[in-house]
Write a structure and sequence with these properties.
Helix content is 53%, strand content 13%. The relative contact order is 0.07. The chain has helices at residues 2-57, 61-74, 99-109, 151-201, 215-264, 272-308, 318-335, 354-372, 402-407, 427-437, and strands spanning 78-82, 87-90, 128-136, 139-148, 316-317, 339-342, 349-350, 377-385, 388-395, 441-446, 452-459. A hairpin with a 2-residue loop joins strand 3 and strand 4. The chain is of the alpha+beta class. The chain is rod-shaped. It has 10 helices and 11 strands. The strands form 3 sheets. Strands 6-8-9-11-10 form a 5-stranded mixed beta sheet, covered by helices on one side. A 4-stranded antiparallel beta sheet has the order 2-1-4-3, with helices on both faces. Strands 5-7 form a two-stranded antiparallel ribbon.
């Protein structure tokens, strides 16, 4: 907006200055040209009078001497002829026999004075010819031709134009300064307001926008500050309610768990079914609290990334992280009778942290293992597609219907067929918030003949070097020399070959899906 306002103001200033400067330059040049014409016309009148006197007296010596003296003083040539075109005086190298001079002489003898009409410019350097008849009334006794130099007049015009343009430049600079100041005065409050709106939209508490600028903007900023305080207070209360409720319920749930566990050995066999139901509900409540806290953390992080931007050094190899997490989840998959494997994919650098991507993989793999069923196969893959680094978890389980796919990802939504499976229905919502915070998205699609594919699109890390955990360019100690675009820590394994303890195991994952 600042550029558009500044462009409009400067365009108006340029048009105003041009409308003032161009006529002034033209007027200055015309005035100096007129001065030259008037001065040389006076000289021609004087020579015409002398020519007429010489014709009456028959003595041309005074006329020749005057013409010679004029040429010596001013350097301008003069040609004077009588009524029969006979040369009387020729000075400065100009001759009556010259074709151009001859045409001027003919016009003057026909009693037609000749004076240039074009306006001089600073770059004009050609001499100008003037012609004037001698005699009185209709009786022409001779003709006078004068070749006038325009150097002095052109120099005067150059000086005057320079002063005018200098003044115009100073005024233009003053206009630019004033336009910048005015634009800044108007636009700065809008920039502060725009940032505050972004913070509010991201769910972050916006700073109080400083009131300034025109009265209309001041009123708008004041109203926004009041609205932001109200909205921020409501959002903060809602966030605190979720966080405090989740946190405060942990202690009584833990105490309840201990007491229920202590009762397990003392209950009669007839109460075992009730005891199992109570412990299952306790586990469900614990998972729900964990997922609520994970979702609140993901939303907070997404808001911060939206407002503050993303750091260029936050990047990781999606293929390496996926392979590492699959190794951790394989015992769980084997226990459930599910085949879990990861494609041996090339490096796919994603613009996110390894911790965030590990949480995404954990949620998606946990979902696939729970819902695909025994005997199914789950494949984890990571690849680059244009500007995206794509993480895909695909299974060949029963899948979902089109109606169910439309609701997949909604908070707390679970298919009616999976009501008996542990979960809270928040896992995919957590993944969606993590991806959205990084500028990515989540995509679901059915697999033929049956199954489900979940794809997470994350921005691809900018082309260039890959950041390691420390200085140096040595290759990984396990996989040997890296590609040309890879920089790894000297003597340190890459993410594909680091020990599995770099992230919590499946039994420690906080963001489980429902």
């Amino acid at each position: 907006m600042r550029a558009r306002v500044l462009t409009a103001l400067l365009a108006f200033a340029v048009l105003a200055l041009a409308g003032f400067t161009v006529p002034l330059l033209t007027l200055t040049a015309s005035e100096r040209t007129q001065q030259l014409t008037v001065a040389r016309s006076g000289t021609l009148d004087r020579f015409a009078t002398l020519t007429d006197q010489a014709e009456r007296t028959g003595d041309t010596r005074a006329l020749v001497a005057e013409a010679t003296r004029y040429t010596q003083l001013y350097g301008e040539a003069v040609v004077i002829v009588d009524a029969h075109r006979a040369p009387v005086a020729q000075t400065g190298g100009m001759r009556a026999s010259d074709p151009v001079v001859g045409r001027l002489v003919d016009a003057a003898l026909r009693n037609q004075p000749v004076s240039p009409t074009s306006t001089l410019r600073p770059w004009n350097r050609d001499d100008r010819l003037f012609a004037r008849p001698a005699g009185s009334g209709t009786r022409v006794t001779g003709a006078v031709v004068l070749r006038a130099s325009v150097d002095a007049a052109a120099h005067d015009i150059s000086v005057r134009w320079g002063l005018i343009l200098l003044g115009t430049g100073l005024v233009a600079v003053a206009c630019v300064v004033l336009a910048l100041a005015a634009t800044r005065w108007v636009v700065r409050p809008l920039h502060r307001l725009d940032r505050a709106v972004g913070e509010l939209a991201a769910g972050l508490p916006p700073r109080q926008t400083q009131v300034g600028g025109p009265p209309e903007l001041r009123k708008l900023v004041t109203g926004f500050n009041r609205m932001a305080d109200t909205v921020t207070a409501a959002l903060d209360q809602q966030r605190r309610l979720v966080a405090d409720t989740s946190h405060q319920l942990r202690n009584p749930l833990t105490a309840l768990r201990l007491r229920v566990d202590s009762l397990g050995s003392r209950l009669p066999p007839s109460a075992s079914r009730t005891y199992s139901g109570v412990t299952s509900e306790l586990e469900r409540m614990e998972r729900l609290l964990d997922d609520l806290l994970a979702l609140a953390t993901a939303e907070q992080r997404a808001g911060e990334l939206t407002v503050n931007g993303r750091r260029r050094d936050e990047r990781c190899d999606a293929a390496a992280v996926a392979s590492d997490r699959v190794q951790l989840w394989r015992p769980v998959a084997d226990q459930g009778g599910v085949s879990l494997r990861a494609h041996d994919s090339p490096i796919a650098m994603a613009a996110c942290t390894e911790t965030e991507l590990a949480q995404v993989v954990d949620v998606l793999v946990d979902n696939a293992l729970k819902y695909a069923g025994p005997g199914s196969e789950v494949v984890v893959d990571a690849a680059c597609e244009g500007p995206w680094a794509v993480l895909e978890v695909q299974d060949n389980g029963p899948g979902l219907t089109k109606e169910e796919l439309a609701h997949l990802g909604d908070r707390f939504w679970r298919s009616g067929r999976h009501r008996t499976v542990r979960g809270s229905g928040l896992g995919l919502a957590i993944v969606e918030r993590i991806a959205a915070g990084r500028g990515g998205r989540l995509d679901f699609r059915a697999v033929s003949p049956h199954g489900l594919s979940v794809r997470v699109f994350l921005p691809r890390a900018p082309a260039g070097t890959r950041l390691g955990d420390g200085p140096g360019n040595a290759p990984c100690t396990s996989c040997g020399p890296p590609p040309e675009d890879t920089r790894l820590t000297a003597g340190v394994p890459c993410a594909r070959h680091r020990p599995s303890v770099m992230f919590p195991g499946p039994d420690q994952v906080g963001g489980r899906v429902g």
